[in-house]
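Kindly inspect what follows.
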Amino acid sequence: MNEQKRSCPQCSQVISPEDTIVFGHGLLGHLDCRRPRVLSAEERTLLFLYCPNHKIAECSTCLRQFFLREIASLDRFGVRLHVCPHCHADLTDSIRAHLYGCTMLPALVRHRAQAAREAARNLVRPSHQVSNRADVRMREAEAALHALRASMRQPPRKRSVRGAESSETTLRDVGSRRARRLSNSAASVSRIREVSRHASMRQRRITSASATISCERW
C-alpha cells in the first residue's frame, strides 16, 4: 500500500524531499511556504562560521562566483535571501551544494550536517518498509538534528601539534631577535654614555689647565 504524500499544514502544498522543513511532535511543514527550499538556520550558521572568506555560489546565468556577503540579503518580510546580485537568480541550490562538500567544515560537522539533511528528506519520502514508519523517521531526524547542533556548539578544532610547535618556535625566534636588539641597543646607550663621560672629563681637564695657564701669566 502506497504511503500518502505529506502536505504542509500552512500552505497545503505537497512537501518535496528537497524542501526545507520544520518538524517536531509528529508534525512537519515548510520553513517558508513562499520559498520552500530556503536555507535552514543550521545551514546559514555553518556558512557564517566556516565559509565567510571564500566563494560559495555560482550563478549559471551570469557565470560568476560569489562570496556569502555578496548574495545575502533580506526581503521586505525579513526573510533571508541568497540571490545573484546581477540577474537575481536564486542561488540556494548552488550554496547548498557547496556547503555539504566544503572541506573547511570539520569532518564531523560536515558528516552530521549531511546526515541531518538526509534524515529530514526521508521524512517526506514515500516508503513501503515497516522500519521506516513516520514516527521512527521523525525520531531519527530529530536525533540527527540534535547531533548536528551539538557539534556546532563545540569549540573550533585545534591546530595540529606540528603547527603549534612551528608557531611556538617562530615566537621564540622572534623573542630572541627582539631580546638581541634590545641588548644591542642597551650596549649602544652604555657606550654613548661612556664616551660622553670621558668627553666631559676631558673638557673639565682642558678648562682647568687653561685656568692654570692664565694664572701663571699673571
